[in-house]
Amino acid sequence: MCHYMLPTRGQPTARLDGRYGDEAMLLLLEAIRAHGTRASEYHLRIFGGGNMFPNVGNRGKRHIGQQNIDMAYKLLAMHGLMSHGEHVGGTGHRHVIFDIWSGQLALKQSPLVADSGCPTGVQPA
Fold first, then answer.
1. pLDDT mean over 93-101
2. Which of these, 21, 35, 20, 10, lies nearest to 76 by C-alpha position?
3. What local confidence, expressed as pLDDT, does residue 59 receive?
4. How many Å is the Cα radius of gyration of the chain?
5. Which long-range contacts (C-beta less than 8 Å, at least 24 apart) are formed by 75-83?
6. In a domain, 38, yes or no
7. Domain tally, the chain
8. Up-side HSE of residue 102: CA atoms within 13 Å toward CB?
């Protein structure tokens, strides 16, 4: 499972960082090879990419969530892989629960709370 925050940092260093999509994929592929398997043996799914800041102008740019979605598709194509399912876009965040023993997956999307004056719309606890 990869959970990256940004599509790329642009200039990777010698040490890969899983916070970036392109580097997270390389780390995943390294782990797959280290365990003697191939990426094509796995069922890949894409989740996320919600717009966490819909009230903030992006000045003509795609929001980070959409950039992350685009990077996921690019990475799959680049490595000759295909998605077996997806739940992407929208606003807010997702809770993904993955049972590694059974392979069962549960998903809940949590929309942003109505504008509370906070840039994310999230109410403080």
1. 91
2. 21
3. 67
4. 16
5. 75/21, 75/22, 75/25, 76/44, 76/46, 79/25, 79/29, 79/39, 80/40, 81/39, 81/40, 81/44, 82/44, 83/44, 83/45, 83/46
6. yes
7. 1
8. 6
